[in-house]
Fold these 4 entries.
Entry 1:
Amino acid sequence: MSKRTTILLDKELYEELVKESLRRYGTVKALSKVLNSILLETFKGKREMLRLIYSEKAAKTTCEEFEKFRRELSRRLES
């Protein structure tokens, strides 16, 4: 269910949303659709990241093991 609200946008941000609305839908009357899709994409990524962070882990490691792994990986990337 959609909710109606008012937001205040910087001029540059508003102009970018207008351009994107014209590009996607051919009209400036689709600002809400554009903004909704951008916000959903943004929050979807964050929700997925939080799910991964707080999910049950398949492997366990100590801080020392992780630090050893990190150093080895860094060494490989530098060479």
Entry 2:
Amino acid sequence: MFTEEIQLEDHLVRIRMPDWQRLLDLIPILEEKESYGRWSGEEQQPYLIPAEEVRHFQDLVYDLGLVVVYDWSQWEKGHTAWRKKAYDFSRMDVPEICKMITLLVRADRFTEGFLVEAFERRVILRILLALRQKVPYERPL
């Protein structure tokens, strides 16, 4: 499920803690794991098989409605965060974290292995750690 950017804050306040917890339960798994995919196929046409954790993460963020409809390809803050190896995602608010998740998930559709790289660079783990500090989400006054 996609969520329109204009409806994102209303959507986020309706997500209950047990639903957030489904996503946050990935943290201890990601803290231990290092490899998130493997290449297969012939040399001329290799393809990436993502690890179960990657597929599970994708399913969860769609299921929770955390994939946002916005122009992710032009979001400079998100692209800057991606380029910085040690970006502190706790500097983002929850809607921005959702936009960052969207950028990573959507970019993977155009660049095979992008999301796996985000897992292996610990970007997804750092995003989830930042999210854990901020949920349950309450709309700002």
Entry 3:
Amino acid sequence: MKSDLEMLNEAEENLEWFTRNSKNIQEEFGGKAIAIKDKKIVSSADSGIKLLEVLKKQNIDRSDVIIERIPPRGEIRIF
């Protein structure tokens, strides 16, 4: 089992990768939910719920991935 520090470091690396590649990711996966692990997209689906079902079928533990919803092209996100 990974330590909390290992899990935090992996999450930070994956989020940095996501940020650096967000334009390409948005072009390919706009309108979908994606799961990121080891600096790559390991799964995608039309919704978060469907993505969780896909991850379960792939035997990927939800706690091992970062899940992001990618807005469709032209959608504006306000935080």
Entry 4:
Amino acid sequence: MRRNVRIGALTIVLAALVVPVHPVPALAGGAHGSQPMLVGRVSWAQLEKVKGWQASYDAYRPDPAALAALRAVKGHYRIVVVLGSWCSDSRREVPRLVKVLHEAGGGHFSLEMYGVDHSLRVHDPAFPKDVLPGLKAERVPTIVVLDRDGQELGRVVETAERPLETLLNTFVAPEERRERRWKSQ
């Protein structure tokens, strides 16, 4: 009996050494190091499961005045994000953006996120073709804010030079002024 226990334990140890470790199936698509690589259209529900993304979201404290200004927005804006789930810049900036949009609320911003591999090429037919030349990002994350007609209002590449909530207000302010003038005529 004791011999069978040793053989069973040895079999388990050997099997653990031979069986390769794979990324979680829901996050499959390849991996770089220990970071899963999400490719194609992705959601926050997928990203928050990637190590460090939820912590980045939780740690960010958006500026209350900038959030109030975003809540007062009247138009509708589309935000398209190209990110690398494996990228530290994406892990910093994208959760901040998601938190800003969650806290601003109001439904004035729609968010589309697309994961890329290390080629930085978007392989998703739903991706808006005019956002990136050749469907290839220069760096990730690339965050593009579009008006209701698909015209670009602003872009953040890799690192936001100011808080994202402030940049969003800067990007949409000219459009908001135009909307107010149009409605008052």
